[in-house]
Amino acid sequence: MLEVHGLKKRYGRKKPILEGVSFSVRPDSITCLIGLNGEGKSTILKAIMGLVPVDAGTVLVDGEVSREKIAFVPDLQTMPGYMTIGDALTYMGDYYPDWNPKVAEELMGLFKLLTTDKILELSKGNQAKFSLVLGFALDRPYLLLDEPFAGIDLFTKEQISWIFSSHYMEGRGILMTTHEIVEIEHLIDRVVFLQDGRIIDEHDTEEMREVYGKSVQDRMLEVYQR
Amino acid sequence: MKQYLMLTNEELKRSWKMIVAVILAMASIEILTVVGRVIYQERQVRNYMSDAKVTESEALRSFGKLSFEQASSYFSYVIMIGIVLVILYAIQIWYRDWFGESKYIYRLLLLPGGRAKIFFAKWTSLALVIISFIGLQWAVIQLSYAIFNWLIKNNYRASSFDISMTLKQLYTMNVVDVLILLILSLFVVSFLFMLVLLERSYRKAKGLLFIVLEVIALLVIMMGGMYVIETLDIFLSQEISGIMLAIFVLYFAYTIWKSLRLLKWKISV
Amino acid sequence: MRKFKFVLILAVVSFLTLGIYALFIRSIDESDFIVETVQGDPKQPAVRSVQAELYDEGLKKVDYNVALDGRVEKAKDNWISGMFEGPYNENGAPADFRRFIRSDYVLTFEQQGTTYAMGTKDNNKWELQYWEKGKQRVVKKIFPAPPEARKLGETQLSPDKRFGNSLYVLAQDIQNDSETLLYKIDLKNDTIQKINLPVISKGEIIILGIHNETIVYYTTEIVEGADDEKQTLYLSDGEKSQRLKGLKSFGDGETKLSTDGTKLIMLECEPKKLNWTIYDLASKKSIKHKISIPSVTDESGSGEYTELKDDLIYTANRTGDGVFNVLVIDALSERVIYEGNIKDKLKRTETTLNSLVYN
Questions:
Q1: What are phi and psi of C85, to 5 degrees?
Q2: Which of A37, A149, B3, C109 could staple C159 via S-S, CB 3.0–4.6 A?
């Protein structure tokens, strides 16, 4: 279980961005963090990965304070500009003991990416797919995705959505932030609603549908209209 | 250890074209200035000979011969430019990971294991560049001396190998001094690294504030230390040297410690 | 290996280029000194301890100490050793002696390898410490201040000269412009005795020599209205002083009292010539001596060092590229007791003569 406890973050004397955010991500499930733009979703993911400092709060993975069980797929490119896909894959293999080159190769084939392509010359869609490869090819039980569907075309969205119902999901707990609820609603197991730096609501999507008869989108409108 | 070396290699790889270009440019400029000076002197002597209608030896006597020390007098300017470029490199080596089409800083901070290797990879890159510059500059001095000798006419040349006073400050003919020069350079690099990391860890005004505070702290330590030593007036000169050396070592260690701390706890993408 | 390609390239470049530098440094010539004795025995006591200090002014800064029996000591500095070099008068002394001589109220004087330091903080006690380098020991003494000295204001004690077991000290009140007092400190019996110094003027006093009761000194006074300083030479027998007239320049160091106290030896250095005058204090007669020296100064005009010590004139002069002639002459008899040539086999012009030292 990936547990987030009491994350707090403020910038100077302005309103705090995170005011005690706590939630958890279960293994073998997809949790979606939902909130309006600029509310701190991205910040939460980065805080979990230690990419931004927090004023308070802890992150536990199966009871331990360790980031080495979480993989992160950010919404921008992180490999040096000159690198080709092949260079990047070699890089990952060099530095990560839990890098799985076989999975990488399979996904590359599925996504139709070439090792000779220069990363920054790829289309946005292909860049997004490549980022996913970097995340999924790490044998880690938890995977964080920051806006994996942002600004990409429908066709690529479908390709990416496919992966979330494939065998590559086995044994993984996923936490993602996204705006494209509609497309992936059928995949999400749990939603966490973030507003004003706090978690205001958390539901299992199935429970929501069966018990309350609401879709995630319905719930979202409800929540954010208050 | 292996990752640290790979990261160092990666840093150098990214800057390689720039490094080679700067080395070639500096070397070419220096050699060209030597060639230029030789040709210039020759031309001046010729002009003087025809203007004043004197023989070559008379012209040389009034004009003076050209020594390598004079011919290489522009080298100190090129070296100063080199120093500025190294300082810029020390700053750019960090900032390039935040700015640009990709943010490599994410990748670095997400690497497994501790973050100290990120710092020391960049640090080592600077160290290697600095030592190479020091060594290559000497090689260029020797090379231009050979070119100088080959190019200049025998009777136009004054005295034997000598270099300018400024160059002699750097090249003291003592290998220990090269080591000391490197240590001093790395101190400056570490201090700059600390300031950059401060800026990258705190937003805008707060970052600048901390930078100013650190600079003030350094000045206070230096001036304050000297003031205290002078006022107390109980130390022998060797003891003062020892104290200053100790303060230097401690502060050097502080800049590295602080940088590592910032990188571990306070850095922000 | 390929993963470290650029690291290796720079490492190799650094190693090679610094190697070139190191090889170049080694290839720079260092002077190779031998000593040729022309006359006299370099092992005789007056000559044995003499060393010529030579500095290499070339690319590689080396200091050479050449003894007249041929032994050469070389020293090279780097930035760190330069930082830790002590002031010249510390002379290898232990830390507490060095701290003592640093104090504002302490003045030092060196003679024959011993550094004498004296001072008084409150005019009640006089502190004397001296460091004998040869014996590697510091001797500390404290004396109650002599009665008449207690009445002075802020007092500066200058250890002036030592003759035998007596150290002569000048006490001067630097607050009030009163006269200078001369004291003789017996280092064996630990006594202080005031020496009557019949001083005619109130100017600065420089003692040229003391032998028993005979004191030869001169005073320096600023002449009112002119830029000049008037120097007057006196001979005192402890009771009265008489002016010595008719003698030209008598600077401290170049004018000394002979060891038997009967004559004044006055050196005059001119290019290529060494002149000195022996003035008999009793008969008031002067005898002039001179020796010509084929010195050839170097580009900066230096290359000459002369000193009068124990009635002997020690003079070292550059006579050619890397050649330094050393003469030790008995001032009273004009006899050359030693002459030698320090020669650099490589005939380097960069090595210059700094001084002669006696270790």
A1: -80, 135
A2: C109
Conformational region of residue C20, where left means phi above 0, alpha means psi within -120 to 50, and beta covers everything else: alpha
Contact indicator for C167, C132 with CB cutoff of 8 Å: no
Stretch C75-89: mean pLDDT: 81
pLDDT-derived band at A158 (thresholds 50, 70, 90) equals: confident
Cα distance between residue A144 and residue A140, in whole Å: 11
A:123-182 residues touching chain B, CB 8 A cutoff:
none
Give the DSSP H or E segment for A212. none
Q: Which chains touch A (3 or more CB pairs under 8 A)?
A: B
Residue with tokens 């070397």: B27
ipTM of the prediction: 0.93
| Domain range list for chain C | 38-79+246-359, 86-195
Taking CA atoms, what residue in C is nearest to B19?
A: C10
Query: How distant, in Å, are the alpha carbons of C235, C243, C261, C290 from that of C281?
Result: 8, 11, 9, 20
* Mean pLDDT, rounded, for C182-189: 88
Q: Residues of A with CB below 8 A from B201's CB? A: 53
Read off the pLDDT of residues C94-129 as tens digits, 9 standing for 90 and up.
888 888 888 888 998 888 778 899 998 888 889 999
**The model's pTM:** 0.89
CATH architecture of C86-195: Beta Barrel (2.40)
